[in-house]
Each structure stands twice: as C-alpha cells, then as structure tokens.
Amino acid sequence: MILILLGPPGIGKGTQAGVLSDVLKLHHVATGDIFRKNFKENTKLSKESKKFIAKGILVPDKITNQIIADYLSQTNLNSGFLLDGFPRNVLQAQFLENFFAKSNLILTKVIYFNAGAHDLMKRIIGRRICTQCGKVYHLNNIPPRVQGICDKDQKE
C-alpha cells in the first residue's frame, strides 16, 4: 500500500501520518526527515539545498525530486509506505508519477486535508519543532511533557 498525504502547512499531515503508519504498519516517509538526514550526512544535494534555505526560499524542484528519489531508491519500502510532504506542486507530482512507473510502484490513494485560513493560522502559531530531531509539538494540542524539552531526545 502506498499513500500520499497532501494539504497546506499546519493541517496535521505529519500527525495523521504518524497515526496511519502505526495502524497500517507502513513506513512513514516524511520529506522534512529526509532533508534532515541529508543535512546530517552532509550530502552534495544537502549542500545545494542549504544555499536556498539560507536565503529563505524553497529548494528547487530538481534538487527536492532527486533527494526524494534517492531516499526511495535506497530504502526498503516493500511493505508499503506513506509519503508526507511531497509532492508540493504539479511538477513534483509528475516527477513522482514517472518515478513510480519506472520503479513499478502503484499508488493506492491520495488523501487531501484542508481547513479554513483562520484554523490553519491558529495551528501554525502554536506549532513548535525540535531543532535536533524534528518532532512536532503544539502548545495547546500536543505539548511536550516538560515545557521547552523534547520528549523524544530530551533537548531544549
């Protein structure tokens, strides 16, 4: 089974992906985690990505597509996976469609989440992300057990 979760930032894709991957026993493939892994390994593509991120602009599709393709190619995903945070636009979707075709992968379902602008703003304002491990919290909905300390890695 291959699922893709789409929707605007702050809608809860990552939260729902965590639940669905546990229930359905699927590998959770999160774009942010893949980028952090590349940064940690100091790959050539991560060095290129950092140039754009430092300027506060999105990493170009060509680089993002390659990072995702490399990860999907190098990871055992035979039992299925859930893709969270990719694709973000039509060009990335076309790339992914071609990648799936070349890799003999069949997409099972795309799930789109949406909410009103006011609700999304409230969700984003309360969002906190651990700079070390990437775990996402929300000050009201999903706070850490100890304020300011990540439950996962115990860092500030």
From TrEMBL:
Q: What class of enzyme is it?
A: transferase
Q: Which residues does UniProt call coiled coil? A: none
Signal peptide from the UniProt entry: none
Q: Which UniProt keywords apply?
A: ATP-binding, Kinase, Nucleotide biosynthesis, Nucleotide-binding, Transferase
EC identifiers of the protein: 2.7.4.3
* GO MF annotations in UniProt: AMP kinase activity; ATP binding
Query: For this UniProt entry, what is the primary localization, expressed as one broad class?
Result: cytoplasm
Q: Which family does it belong to?
A: Belongs to the adenylate kinase family.
Entries under NCBIfam families matching the protein? adk
Protein name (record): Adenylate kinase
Q: Which organism is it from?
A: Candidatus Phytoplasma americanum
